[in-house]
Amino acid sequence: MKKTIFFIFSILTASCLHLKGQDYSAIESAIDSYDYKSAVNLIDSALSDTTLAQTAVRELNLQKAKCLKRLFRYNAAAETLASILQYDDMEVMAELADCHSQAGRYPEAMILYGQLSRMRPDILYYRVQKAAMEYRSEDYLNCIGTGKDICRTDTIPTIFTLIAGSYNQLNQLDSALAYYGKALQVNPYNRGTVTSMSNIYLQKKDYDSVINLTSSYLEEMEDWIVNPILGLAQYLKGDYKSSYDTYYRQIKEGGDESYSTLYNMGLTNLALGQTGYAEEYFTKAWQIDSSDVNLAYNIGMSKVRGNTPTSMNALKYFDKAIKMMEPDSTMMYKIHSGRALSYYKKMDFRKAIPDYLKAYEYNPSYISALSTIAYCYEVEKEYKKAEEYYEKYLKYAKEGTENYNFAKKGLEYVKGQLFMEETE
Length: 424
Description:
mainly alpha; 24 helices
């Protein structure tokens, strides 16, 4: 009878479980036909026998957990395995670690794989899984340590990548590049390694390295994920013609009309002075996503520079860009009040006034700005304006406070000055 790769009962095992022949056959038949749900029910029925030996209970629960895993019921599988877990039972421990990993409980899986790797340091699989769980748990320093320990005896591209990724997360970019380079030597056509290295080079603004890396890769592989990275590096380097050719292939041969490709093609055309084509690609990108202020600005620029009948529509997109850039009122209040205070301390009162006005506009509760504006006008001998703002302040200020009294005296003074001016 056919046996599954994970559920093999020998005749000896069957006799040890004290299962009836038909029970054994039914469980095996359900698993052989991938009917794991029925297999779980049959195993539960077998487990209801209170006379089963502990070895039988363990074996049945282990097989039940494996069936539950095939049904993607990782939590139920983990509970089943935990119920029979013994410290020295490495098979159950490994199955439980895998359940935690599949369910996204990486710290729990990491602990179990750590225990397994200490119990059997000669089994590479446990150490590799430990490194992977450390990375997924964001325990990057330990991942580096575990990975380097593995590298002393084995050459595994995945481990090089885990070490490189950990260094990248720790912002140690040169070390990350070194280990990505080791991974690339073993597997030079791994897209993930090429894109990861390219992203680091882009961060470092090392565009030549991106171009060399991606070009070499694309000579051997047709890859419409890596190709636009090459186009971006060419654009950022200022090689607009090459960038145009790369993005043109991306669209015409790769059939890629995604937002980023259309937008970058627009930028390349704009840089080349091909404003009509730039507008065309920017407009297509706008139809996909109209929330990017940079796109709104660039559509406007392509229309203005094109000097075509559509130039008159440029203002529409510039206005959209302004609307998108409507600032956070709290931050703008802080910025303008800070600028105003800076001018005020320099006794440059005329320049302080516009920033105080802006600060008050963004934060109407900032009424002390009104008295300060009034004082600035007073110093500048613009008494009519000073009178206006002192009166505005006194309208909102709390009577009897120090600022209130200051403003009241200021108002009396400027009114006196205005009276003198009228009588002269």
